[in-house]
Amino acid sequence: MVSFLSSCNKLGLLFLFSVLLIGFNSCEGRRLVESSETQQPLQFQYHNGPLLGGKISINLIWYGKFKPSQRAIVLDFVASLTSAGKSTTAQPSVATWWKQIERYYQLAKNKNRRSSNLVLSMGRQILDENYSLGKSLTTQQIVKLASKGAQKDAINVVLTSADVVVEGFCMSRCGTHGSGLGSASGKRSKFAYIWVGNSETQCPGQCAWPFHQPIYGPQNPPLVAPNNDVGLDGMVVNLASLLAGTATNPFGNGFFQGPKEAPLEAASACPGIYGKGAYPGYAGELLVDSATGGSYNAHGVSGRKYLVPALFDPAASTCSTLV
Predict the structure, then answer these.
(1) What Cα–Cα distance (Å) separates residue 133 from each residue in 68, 128, 148, 180, 319?
(2) Local structure of 147: helix, strand or coil
(3) The domain containing residue 182 runs over which residues?
(4) Are 246 and 58 in contact (CB under 8 A)?
(5) pTM for the model
(6) Distance between CA 77 and CA 75 in Å, rounded?
(7) Distance separating alpha carbons of residues 112 and 255, to the nearest angstrom
(8) Chain-centre distance of CA 144, in angstroms?
């Protein structure tokens, strides 16, 4: 069933990754970065493969117990990505952050004419509150859950609750993106999927930084989560990173830097950077909500505030932040 799998977020000293591989891996997650004095310039390459283009729905598959208030955090984030969010929210916004992805599409069009602009929208929600596959999942089972969503013109996002153990979760990854094989209109075709786990009780020091004290590296005080939910705010950061990687490198032959077996993608090339001046243990200069004390760098719909990762600018060869 699976054509490609991906995994990410191996936490070591200063949260530097080492990537675990299963077939093609594109990875993303949470890590701190080396200082600018030691970091080498990245040279992104386009490998002439298709990007996700056209009208794409984001289907959310909720596995396990999530409160309605928790689901609302993610739903509002997805809504914030759409064109409607561009004119209804304050700046800097989630929509403005996502618009940076267009740089990749323009470069792809210059190389070949197969790439079309990407327009995201909210799709279906599937609730699996009864743990149909149990509370301990393998990577294959994650792909099986993802296949429950639409398998054409969609990104199927599996979100597992805090009491669900997933193969490699915390030990080697906080989330993953890849593709599987499904049937659409009687034809076998690839579909893109993402998995993100709620790390609130299992490994917040690894997967919910900077909203929790880190396990490794500099021990700066954690930031206040903008939506007052360490687990869900952490999931949003990982989801944002994985969406960027999925759009620009969905099948392992899009945009990435380094070897195909361990690629750095649009967001994973800028680990731990959320604002200007970021360095290991410090997320950068962020905005702070005067009422809640929550740290953020992007406004969303419904008055929401979010933290989104820096994205690599392939034209300037730098990590670009909103603040």
Answers:
(1) 22, 9, 13, 18, 39
(2) coil
(3) 2-320
(4) no
(5) 0.88
(6) 5
(7) 13
(8) 20
